[in-house]
Amino acid sequence: MTRPRTTLPPSSAVSIAASVLAGQGQYGVVSQLAREHSVTRQQVYRVGEQARAALEAAFSVPAGGPPLASIELNEADIERAIVALRVVTPASIRDIEDVLPELFGIHWSYGKIQGVIVDAEARAAGWLADVDLSNIDNVALDEMFSQGRPVLGGIDLDFGYLFALDVSPTRTGAEWAEVLGGLQHDQGLTPSVVVKDAGSGLAAGVSAAWPSAEQRDDLFHAVYDMGKLARRLEGKAFGAIARVEELLDKRSKARTEKRRRSLGQLIRRRTESMDAAIARYDAFEALRREAAGVLKLTDRGSGRLRTSAEVRDALIRIAGEMTELGSDRICKLAT
Hints:
With 335 residues, this protein is of the alpha/beta class. The chain has helices spanning 10-22, 29-37, 41-59, 75-88, 93-104, 110-129, 173-187, 200-209, 219-253, 257-295, 308-323, 328-334; strands at residues 138-146, 149-156, 162-167, 193-196, 214-217. Helix 8 links the parallel strand 4 and strand 5.
């Protein structure tokens, strides 16, 4: 009679085998499995060896035998992989050059990989130029920068289609008008709503290309600019505090009464400036938070959608209160 390799129930043996293989190399796995299944450590080791032998028998390739799987590879497959690595990852050309031997066991030079990418870009540009854009109704426009040069971009807000990404020498209204006018003339792009920042050049370009389009300022730049100015005002307030503290320290170490009186007068003036800087920051921060809440368009808690009149009236009031704080930067932002 053949001795059974294990006396464990089949379900327990499978569970132990899977757990042993998954946790191989981890300290304490065998002891934990032995406790959980009320078996000895030797039984756990035996089941693990049986599982490992079964896997090796199922997936190892016999000497001289056929591989488990094989694919026929041609240059088109490698070119597709290069474009995918460049677009999806995105990987640099050097990284692609390094990874091709790992993926396919072949090496392509930097220049050859770059040629594949340039050719793909040219073909994509040709296809994009033929896309009918006449059905796009709501767009967002913005400016980005690449190596110090402006890139004029546009996206369809309904479907997320990027219809413009043009490197331009400047970002004036004339440059925007040329890009947008070309899209209108060549591909029929005539949106009814344009979401953008408050830049004058972009607004002028939109007005020239699409005079009947409704222009709406986006929320992102308003919130971003307020946050950036708040950090600046906060930094100035902390700087004023540090200067007063430095003077107080100097006065405590002054050796003559004349020097102490002189520092005391300077401290009073700096303290007034410090208090003004702190008050300006506190007031602006409160208005910034209120404006950011208004721009969320819904009341927190109830979810009630604010009307456009409510948002407009609130922002006009907040902007007016910001202007009263003084400072050219605050007044410009409020405007």
